[in-house]
Structures are given as structure tokens and as C-alpha cells.
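Two entries, shown back to back:
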Amino acid sequence: MLDAWGGTEVVPVYPSDIEIEQGREHLRCYQLNENGLFRWAAACCRSPVFNTQPGFPWAGIPAKAYTNVRADALDGLGDVRCRIYGRDAKGEAPFPISSKIAFRDMMVVLPFIIKGKLLGKHRHSPFFESDGKTPTVTPEILGSR
């Protein structure tokens, strides 16, 4: 899941474009704290599958979910457009990484988010009830262990 520097490539998709065809009963939801990001995983194989936030037109899918099935699955997406949280990297990566989230990173992500909000891509999410806020699976708060 992690690369040599401790990072993970994440592919952004709109929640309304995601369809869970089978295995919904294995879906689990985790949060690091009560206000944290929703981290979805498949309990059957202990694999992380999505990161989401309620009412937000963005779901992050680990690139490995695609490339473990077909090595060339992401070739059509082009180069990685931004890398963030380099402050947490292990060692010195051979490519530029923002320490946190830089302005240039926001300029890459914002058009996707604005378009998604305008088109209602955060609605009809397989992760949240019709109110758009209540997760379909009760989250386990990992920080409370």
C-alpha cells in the first residue's frame, strides 16, 4: 500500500460515480477521531478502499486498488499532479512533495471539488444515507481503543 517513502497514491473520484456491486456486507468504516475523515475498508481482506467526508464531492481510492488488478489501469490519467504531506515522508523522495498542502496543490484539487459541488456529485453516495451525513456503516473510532 505504501511506497518507499511511506506515501500512498490516491485517485480522486466523485462519490456519486462509485457503485459497490458486491461485498457491501464486508464494508467497515473507521475514523481516527470523531471529527476525522471516514476511512472505509473491506473487512474480508482488511483492505482500505475509500476515504470520504460527508457532503464533500470527493472520495479517494488508493491507486493500488486499480494497479493490483491491472498494472496499466491508471496510465490514461497521466502524471501525478500533486504530492502532499512530505513532512511525514521517510527519507528524501526523488520528486517534489509539499510539506503539507501548498497553494499549488489546492489549485490542482479545487476545480475538481467545485465542479463536483456544482453538479451535486456528493449526493447519492454509497457511503452515506440520503441525508448525506449519516454513514451507511457505524464508524469505529480508532483513537478510542
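entry 2 starts here
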Amino acid sequence: MTFEKCHLWPRGDFTMITDLSYIKLGPTAVNTFQLALQFISYHGYFNGSLQISFSDWYHLAINKMILNDDIAILFFITAKHLEQINDMRKDVISAEQLRYTILHKDDNPDGKNRNYLVQIMPLALVISMAGCNHEETGFDTKFPSYRNAFDFISRNLKKFCSILLLCDKLLMKQLVTSANVAVECIPPPTRIHVDQLANLNIAFEGVILPLLNKINERNITPDGSWSVLKKKIICTYQSTEIRFDDLVCLISNLLQPDMFGIHDLPTTNGSTNGCNSKQPSYEKRFTPCCLAKYRKLAVFGWNHLETFISPLYGGLNFKICNGHSKSSYLFFPQYSKTVNISNTNGCNPILLGPVIDTVFLSNVHHCSISVIAHKIVMRNCTNLRLFICVSTPPVINSDCFNIQFGPYNFFYSALENQLAYANMKLLDISQNQWRHPIVCSELFPPTYYKTELTKIHGIFKPLAPSSFYIQPNIFDMNFKTSFFQFFRIRTIPYIYMKSWEQSLDKMRRSDWKASDKKMLSDADIRYLLKKSA
């Protein structure tokens, strides 16, 4: 007879997508779980569907929930991202197009555009997780954010499970009976069928392991929480139904922090705030796992040129930390799942390929970064040049300053294959969202609390055309392919390309050898010679 034990934890990609800790909740305490349950009850009573259009959501967010305009748009975009958590290909969503639907609501009264509908469950989860804020909850910042998310969910498990289960069609019809009285929590005696637990897959995953075996996360292939709980309930209760209070108790007993911990800020010397005053020591860590999306690669305080070209690195979670003035170029030409850059100041350009999900920038200063991503979030960053191709508006916390945005500039021949592996594509000029970032400050409008409006002047601006360039690199660059022609003509605005070509022409006409700076240090050259040996 085999004795087994079940393990559950919040999904790493779920806690990453719903990380809204850069949003301030305001001077008064806000119960975001109550806010989410009120939203479900209101929509469920008047509409009864499991979807909501952007125009309906915007009306609720602004007029009923009194949310900030930018926050309402950000929540919708984040919920759409969460809805597609298991999809490789994600929708391109423009904040400008969403605003356009509000201004022209009469032209499209039912909002039947595919991009402008979202499931209410991910939207309610985004609302609830907005309360997981380090400053407001008093969490110790020495703990990684995925641990804080676990604590936040654990302390509010009844309400969290209520949100997930109320978004089931039958339970919504059964329990939502009034628009004026929200369902604060599912009543304890409510019978939940195991098939109604499928909604939990969006937030939790788990595994069933032999009890006596030592756990090694590197050899584990997680499964959806539904299948784990279904087996546990049927074996324990000899039934396909379970009371809600028993379900919450069961999940509480099985729940643990994410054993993979993909969403954490890599740090050294126990420091998470600010850049190190001393030059940090070089370190590189690689955590292998069966599935690429759980692998982690972290690099700290690099001194020479870094190239990450091993096939093992494809599709992993990449952490970059403690870059400094002597850190040379960092090339990651492969596709990745997520990228997290923190505590970096004055390093040479960081050049990245496609990123399937999110790029987080925290405490990054005086740096140039090139990346293709679905979403980019930055907080406490200054004096950055970002060359990006992004399918949702970049999110900037109001504590950032002088963030310059330009089109993606890192071309290499293998980029076409890496985009195919990631199931992504280079966006043309009209789709790339680098021009339209969202600046976030408080959950509610500042005037609601009689405070001054946030001044966004100086936070971001478009990159000057004279500052744009195609990044030189050490990889094969075939400029005769149709892919390069698309990259050159369709993804880079003409004014940027013209300015770069004119600067190249001036360089050719002048004595460029006399004024050319040495791009690679002696350490870089020794590193490249060693790599090619």
C-alpha cells in the first residue's frame, strides 16, 4: 500500500501577473476581497453572465467602485493577461483603443469585440490581489513577493475561495440573490461538487507524492489543483461533494508557499533595497527543473560580457541583479518565460530576446534595456532607455523618472526562430504599445482623498530619434532576409530609422577610427576567446 501526500501552492505565474504591489491603496484601509465580491454580486445579479465587456466594467469601476481611470484600464488588461495564463499566444491590447470604445460607446453598444471582453473571474482575482501590497500590509521586504502572496491568500482563504467558486454559473445563480446585499462569503454548509473546483486551477497547482519520499522540486511535474483536490476529496470523504467550510479547511491544510519560487527578486548579502555601495561579487545560479517554465537562472554583479546561449536556458525565468558601472554587455538571445531585473545602476546595455510573460524592473537606474515582451512593469527606476516591443501598455509607478521609450533595436538572425519557439511575433508600428505607457499611483483618484493630483511630467517621454540605433552585437546578422526587412520597415518608425542611417553615413564620412570608443574591454575579449576555444 502506497501512502501519498497532497501539496498545493499558489501558481508562480498567477502571483506574478497579479503582483500589483506598486499601486498604493490610499490613506484608508481597503478590503479588496470585499470589493471583488461586491463586483461579482452586482454583475451576477444584473447580468448573470461569466463575461463582462470593457464598457460595462469601466462604468462599474468609475461610478460604483470609484477607481482611478488608469487603474480601471490596468485591471482590465491584467485580467485579460490572467485569462490567457495557459495560452502561449496572448492578445495585443491598447489602452488607447479601450478608451476609444468609451468615447464611441454608441457605435458599439454591446462591446462584442473579442479583445474587449474578459471573464469576470480573473477580473475579480485582480481586484482582490491588489490588496497584497507590501507597504500597506506591513510585509517584511526581506521575503520574496511569492511568499507574501501566499501569506495574503492564506489569511483570506475563505473569501479567496468564495471569489473562485462564485464565478461558477450554477453557484452564482444559487447564491447571488440581491444587488444591494453582496455575498461576503459562501455559507459554510453550501455543498460544492468536485467539478465546480475547476476554477481553482487558475490560482493553484499541486502534486501528489509518496509520503516517505524526499521532495525534490527539480524532478516534480505539477498538476492542476482540480485533479489533486478531486482525488483527495473522493478518497477522504467517499463523495463527489464537499461542504464549503470543509473545502477551505482541506485547502488550508494542503497549502504551502510556491516550491519553485519563480517570482522573487534575486538579491545578495541579504539586501533588497537600493544598490550596493560596494561592487558586488559575481555569481551565477541555475536551477534546473523538468519543465522550462519552472527553471531559474540568476546572475549577480557580472564584470565581463555575458552571453547565455545554452539550449537549457530556453523558456526559463531569468533574474538579473546588482549590475554596476563595470558590468559589461549582457546578451540573452533566447526566449524566456519571465525576466526580473533589480538593484542595478550604470551597467552596459542589457539585450534580451522574446519574453512570453512579464518583465519586472525594480530599482534600476542609468541603464539601457532591449526586450520583446507581453507586459513590462517598472518601479523605482530612473534614467532608463527602453527599446521595447510590447503588446500591452508599459506600467510605470509614479516614483519613476526620465524613462525613455523607443522601438526594439536588437536584431540577430536567430530572433525569428526564438519568436517562433515563444509563439510570439514582432509587432508592427501600429500594434507596439511603447508609446502609450500607464502611470500608476493610487487605487482611487487622488481628488477622492483631497490630495494633489500626481504630476506625470518627467516620468516618461519618447526616445529622441537622434538617440536611436540598431544595437551592434556578436551574433549572426543577415541583413538580406525578408525578416530583417520587416524588422527595419514595419517595426521601426521611419524617423528613427532615417536618423540612425544618417548617423551611420556621417560616421563613414568622418575619421571614425580616431574617435571610436573601445566597446569591449580586455576582460570581454578574453571571455569571448575562451568561449570560442
